[in-house]
Specification:
The complex is a heterodimer. By secondary structure, chain A is mainly beta. Chain A is built from no helices and eleven strands. Chain A is globular and about 40 Å long. Chain B has no helices and eleven strands. Classes of the chains: A mainly beta, B mainly beta.
Chain lengths: 112, 113
């Protein structure tokens, strides 16, 4: 079964607005990964978080891992049309080569 | 840089037919994963291989089988196809010693009519 839930399921924003997707688990996670999948494309790894309270930034993207390691968020500042796609949070098993279990994803549309 | 190669990219089959999907991992990657993504859904793990041996198994139907060959490429064999098998099938690869990032291929879109 799914380990993580994501909200919202869909988000439509005007270009230039900010966007946030949230990932929640009922259990403590050893790690959280984020992937982006463009329409018609394949999942592309964005980042992995492993430490409680960890915050990482990639240009306009900010990733956070909650203090209790039960939730995570991805925030995009000033969205662009190139940000369109589905953002999945995912949990990898305890080993670095374990399978990845994806959350249901948040589909982002950006209106130019 | 070389990426994961999957073939064919698109496949149309009739119910009860068989299909074989191929995956060529990034050179030197020793671990291969197969995922199935239904329309509007998240990718679901099917099976993985490390050094030609099955390393983990997920929600793969008994009608499906897979293997990894000596050159590390992998094939997913699907028999007695059902309408519900219509999906995107992704292969991902990873170098176990380096770990952490699975690199996904472009996927094979299977349509069962």
């Amino acid at each position: 079964g799914q380990q993580v839930m994501q909200i919202p399921q869909y988000q439509h924003v005007q270009e230039g607005e900010d966007f946030t997707t949230y990932c929640n688990s009922s259990t403590t996670l050893s790690n959280i990964q984020w992937y982006k999948q463009r329409p018609g494309g394949h999942p592309v790894f964005l980042i992995q978080l492993v430490k409680s309270g960890e915050v990482k930034k990639q240009k306009r993207l900010t990733f956070q891992f909650g203090e209790a390691k039960k939730n995570s968020s991805l925030h995009i500042t000033a969205t662009q049309t190139t940000d369109v796609g589905t953002y999945f949070c995912a949990v990898r098993g305890k080993t670095s080569y374990d399978k990845v279990i994806f959350g249901p994803g948040t589909s982002l549309s950006v209106i130019p | 840089a070389a990426g994961v190669i999957q073939s064919p990219r698109h496949l149309i089959k009739e119910k009860r037919e068989t299909a074989t999907l191929k995956c060529y991992p990034i050179p030197r990657h020793d671990t291969v994963y197969w995922y199935q993504q239904g329309p509007g859904q998240d990718p679901q793990f099917l099976i993985s291989f490390y050094e030609k041996m099955q390393s983990d198994k997920g929600s793969i139907p008994d009608r499906f089988s897979a293997q990894q060959f000596s050159d590390y490429h992998s094939e997913l064999n699907m028999s007695s196809l059902e309408l519900g098998d219509s999906a995107l099938y992704f292969c991902a690869s990873l170098l176990r010693a380096k770990g952490e990032t699975q690199y996904f291929g472009p996927g094979t879109r299977l349509l069962v009519l």
